[in-house]
């Protein structure tokens, strides 16, 4: 038999609950909270006023970038779209390019769950629960990365609350690529594009200002000479360490100066250091001082010295078999010689000469590792080629530190997916750090050792440098924002 008191309490509780629900709904409607309204087909309808997002300053001057998603006429050189710079051939009927993002279509269940996550994310954002909203936006994108509306809303969230225009711009581009008819994504992209280009240009301007200060230092300055000698060893150490060499800096210097074996280290690690040393000397003593174009034979000669100690059979020769690098599949071995000739022609073209040296060097590095012409040593050759272009333009060789390896590979992965800009920003930041080492480090012993690391995905620390190209998903929120 049912207890009358229990039934009465239950009815009383439900009455209060219904009353509370009505009050909450009325309050939200009064405050104008932009909740997602679900239609019968489970399609979210949402609205966010333009005043809620950062505005592009009036008078912003930017270099316009060609738009369009279709392949252009094959005229040789390169052309640029929103998702990167692509190589074309003037001698062939095909276009060799890094691929556009291949986004798999999720199942119907995942798409519905993604829309549900978007619904709750916008609700949390409207109520000020920004940290929870951020996680839900990320979850929605992970579930359905091809949904143009989700990408647009996530980009707007990052732009408004994180002031991360660069990441928002990338999301808008992905949204336009997923649905070229999405007018909201198109308008957001057109609005932030000048600001993004202005940010990138300011990075180059800072480098140019530092280079003017760097050029005022005489070459015979004893402190600068010592720093250049130390930078040679640091460049060698970090380049081989990125590839997995376990030698410390002092051990590397001992191998170079004394030519003595280090106990507990493999012969291959010793030979990697000796090979990189030979390639660096060849580049500094021969290629940098020589005028004229860079030849394909120069690239082969650098590889011959890098790999000659460990693999003399394959050193200085193109690969003869297919290779696989993580999620990137390089061109077939039969296409490598023609692609390398095409790449060298582009690198020496008048169009490439008009680029900023850092941009040209970065693209040369990327195209080199994208083609992946050798069995081993492609990354080391790519970094040498990048620094060869920079040094010929008067810049010091850029040093990519081993503790930036994760971000370095992530930027290469982004470039393989079609967006080359994060990699250019990464190299620009590395060059800025390198110039600071030359200009402001107290002595050569402190070089490339005391500056903090760039922010990696998932890290959050006031001592880290926030790199615009990095994934800012876990960036700490400003003070005063609730979680």
Question: Short description, anyone?
Answer:
Helix content is 55%, strand content 3%. It has helices at 4-31, 108-126, 130-143, 148-162, 165-178, 183-215, 222-242, 249-258, 267-287, 296-307, 336-347, 350-353, 357-371, 378-392, 405-416, 421-440, and strands spanning 37-38, 44-45, 77-81, 84-88.
Topology:
Elements: H1 4-31, E1 37-38, E2 44-45, E3 77-81, E4 84-88, H2 108-126, H3 130-143, H4 148-162, H5 165-178, H6 183-215, H7 222-242, H8 249-258, H9 267-287, H10 296-307, H11 336-347, H12 350-353, H13 357-371, H14 378-392, H15 405-416, H16 421-440
Antiparallel strand pairs: 1-2, 3-4
Helix pairs in contact: 2-3, 3-4, 4-5, 5-6, 6-16, 7-9, 9-10, 10-14, 11-13, 13-14, 13-16, 15-16
CA-to-CA gap between the ends? Answer: 47 Å
Calculate Rg over CA atoms.
Answer: 27 Å
Q: Can you write the helix and strand succession as a string?
A: HEEEEHHHHHHHHHHHHHHH
Task: Please identify which CATH superfamily of the domain at 217-446 we are dealing with.
Answer: Fido-like domain
Please tell me about this protein's structure:
The protein is an all-alpha fold. The radius of gyration is 27 Å and the shape is globular. Mean pLDDT is 76; it is low at 28-100 and 452-483. Among the domains are: 63-97, no CATH class; 217-446, Fic-like fold (Orthogonal Bundle), CATH 1.10.3290. It has 16 helices and four strands. Strand 3 and strand 4 (84-88) form a beta hairpin. The longest helix is centred in the middle third of the chain and has 33 residues, at 183-215. The strands form two sheets. The chain has a two-stranded antiparallel sheet with strand order 1-2. A two-stranded antiparallel ribbon has the order 3-4.
């Amino acid at each position: 038999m049912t207890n009358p008191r229990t039934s009465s309490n239950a009815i009383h509780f439900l009455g209060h609950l219904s009353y509370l629900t009505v009050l909450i709904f009325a309050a939200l409607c009064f405050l104008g909270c932009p909740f997602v309204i679900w239609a019968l087909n489970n399609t979210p309808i949402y609205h966010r006023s333009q005043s809620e997002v950062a505005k592009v300053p009036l008078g912003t001057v930017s270099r316009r970038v060609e738009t369009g998603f279709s392949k252009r006429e094959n005229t040789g050189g390169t052309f640029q779209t929103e998702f990167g710079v692509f190589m074309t051939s003037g001698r062939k009927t095909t276009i060799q390019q890094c691929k556009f993002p291949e986004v798999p279509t999720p199942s119907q269940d995942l798409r519905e769950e993604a829309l549900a996550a978007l619904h709750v994310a916008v609700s949390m954002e409207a109520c000020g629960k920004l940290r929870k909203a951020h996680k839900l936006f990320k979850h929605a994108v992970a579930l359905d990365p091809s949904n143009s509306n989700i990408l647009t809303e996530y980009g707007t969230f990052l732009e408004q609350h994180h002031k991360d225009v660069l990441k928002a711009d990338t999301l808008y581009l992905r949204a336009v690529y997923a649905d070229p008819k999405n007018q909201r994504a198109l308008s957001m992209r057109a609005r932030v594009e000048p600001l993004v280009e202005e940010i990138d240009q300011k990075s180059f301007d800072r480098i140019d200002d530092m280079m003017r200060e760097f050029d005022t230092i005489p070459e015979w300055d004893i402190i600068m000479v010592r720093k250049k000698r130390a930078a040679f060893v640091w460049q060698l150490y970090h380049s081989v360490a990125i590839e997995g060499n376990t030698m410390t800096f002092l051990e590397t210097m001992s191998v170079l100066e004394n030519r003595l074996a280090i106990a507990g280290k493999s012969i291959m690690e010793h030979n990697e250091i000796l090979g990189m040393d030979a390639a660096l000397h060849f580049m500094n003593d021969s290629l940098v001082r020589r005028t004229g174009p860079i030849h394909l034979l120069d690239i082969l000669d650098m590889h011959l010295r890098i790999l000659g100690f460990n693999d003399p059979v394959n050193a200085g020769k193109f690969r003869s078999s297919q290779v696989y690098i993580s999620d990137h599949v390089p061109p077939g071995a039969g296409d490598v010689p023609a692609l390398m000739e095409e790449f060298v022609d582009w690198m020496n073209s008048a169009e490439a000469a008009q680029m900023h040296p850092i941009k040209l060097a970065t693209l040369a590095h990327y195209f080199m590792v994208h083609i992946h012409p050798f069995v081993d040593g492609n990354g080391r050759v790519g970094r040498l080629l990048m620094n060869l272009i920079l040094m010929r333009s008067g810049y010091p060789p850029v040093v990519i530190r081993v503790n930036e390896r994760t971000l370095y590979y992530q930027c290469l992965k982004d470039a393989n997916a079609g967006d080359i800009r994060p990699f250019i920003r990464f190299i620009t930041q590395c060059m800025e750090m390198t110039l600071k080492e030359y200009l402001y480090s107290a002595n050569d012993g402190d070089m490339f050792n005391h500056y903090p690391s760039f922010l990696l995905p998932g890290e959050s620390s006031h001592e880290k440098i926030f790199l615009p190209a990095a994934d800012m998903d876990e960036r700490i929120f400003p003070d005063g924002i609730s979680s």
